[in-house]
Design a protein that fits this description.
With 353 residues, the chain is an alpha+beta fold. It is 43% helix and 20% strand. Helix 7 packs across helix 9. The longest helix has 19 residues. It is globular and about 65 Å long.
Length: 353
């Protein structure tokens, strides 16, 4: 599994994120003080420092798009720089190195985060020092704590608290932060299609924001408690069976997990717990597994040599909710042993079902 992760996260995502966020440039400067002022304006309070003999190497640039509750960006400094980040109770930050290294200094503890391996969580509370290597380029996700509090209430069903979950500064392996990484990339890719956040349809904007918030709450460590009372409106087995039936009856990717939970009258947290108890997997994983199998069947059934059936891998992948060709191919090969294009070319289907 290591090689696909490195291939996926070290090269192609970097290029794709740059292209997707190209219309959202915030600054490009060789002056570290200018960069510091701009970063404080749209990202986080703090100071930027570089060795005096390296200040001339600074080539700082940032691209950033913000919905008000969720923001995504791409940053680099072109020189070894230290970000002395002050506490800011308004925001939680996530940094995902796409190249180079980030070094997090938390008190006496020093943690390194490398491209293709790590996710850095920058908590709202507490000062932290983050060293950027000269070759570091990072995908940044920032969410407001007020939005996290609202999303947490929806997940747990608890309506009597406005307190957001508490996080700590930490470096996580990429596999544990994969949901957050995917959500950040999804935001960037969709914003890139419109070139302006204001042009993104309101419904899509809400779904993207909700998806990112849920990815943070379900994918990162925090102190969010279990639901205080019964969260199911039906018994867990019935709720899970209903969700499974909805997923299995899809003829194209129709639901995300939040929509599935609302359709069933559940909180997302309740649906998560029900699936874990009954199937030992999340509803997202179950949904992805079923859709991957549906895509597999369609690829085997399609005849690319028939002009009347000019189906492509991209069309099938998109129909089943896989919008990133590289990740779809990697996931498909991990399950079926060959790439999607090989399955598509192995017609005739008369000998297969």
């Amino acid at each position: 599994m290591t090689a696909p992760l490195e291939g996926t996260h070290r090269v192609h995502p970097d290029d794709c994120v740059l292209r997707a966020l190209a219309a959202y440039k915030r600054f490009e400067t060789h002056d570290l003080e200018v960069a510091e002022g701009e970063v404080r304006r749209f990202m986080a309070p703090g100071r930027l420092r570089a060795r005096p003999d390296r200040r001339g190497d600074v080539d700082a640039r940032a691209f950033y798009a913000d919905t008000g509750s969720v923001g995504v960006g791409h940053m680099s400094y072109g020189a070894d720089v230290i970000m002395d980040r002050e506490a800011d109770s308004r925001y939680l930050g996530i940094a995902i190195p796409l190249s180079g290294r980030l070094r997090v200094r938390r008190g006496s503890e020093v943690l390194d985060a490398y491209a293709g391996e790590s996710v850095v969580v920058i908590a709202p509370d507490g000062r932290v020092l983050v060293d950027w290597s000269a070759d570091c380029r990072a995908l940044m996700l920032r969410v407001t704590t007020t939005s996290l509090a609202r999303a947490a209430r929806a997940l747990t069903g608890e309506r009597d608290t406005d307190r957001p979950p508490r996080f700590v500064h930490q470096v996580l392996p990429l596999d544990r932060g994969h949901a957050v990484h995917s959500a950040a990339r999804l935001l960037a890719e969709n914003f890139g299609r419109y070139g302006d956040v204001a042009a993104v349809p309101g419904g899509l904007l809400r779904r993207l924001s909700e998806h990112a918030l849920n990815a943070v709450l379900l994918g990162l460590d925090h102190d969010l408690g279990a639901p205080a009372g019964p969260a199911y409106r039906a018994t867990p087995s019935k709720a899970v069976r209903s969700a499974m039936r909805l997923i299995e009856d899809e003829t194209t990717a129709e639901f995300n997990v939040g929509e599935l939970a609302r359709h069933l009258g559940l909180t997302v947290r309740a649906l998560e717990l029900g699936f874990r108890r009954a199937l030992d997997e999340t509803p997202h994983h179950y949904m992805r597994r079923i859709r991957l199998e549906r895509a597999h069947r369609e690829l085997l059934a399609a005849d690319p040599s028939d002009p009347a059936d000019a189906t492509t891998v991209t069309e099938i992948a998109t129909r089943w909710g896989f919008h990133h060709a590289g990740r779809f191919a990697a996931s498909y090969k991990a399950v079926h042993g060959v790439t999607p294009s090989v399955s598509l070319r192995t017609f005739p289907g008369a000998n297969r079902r």
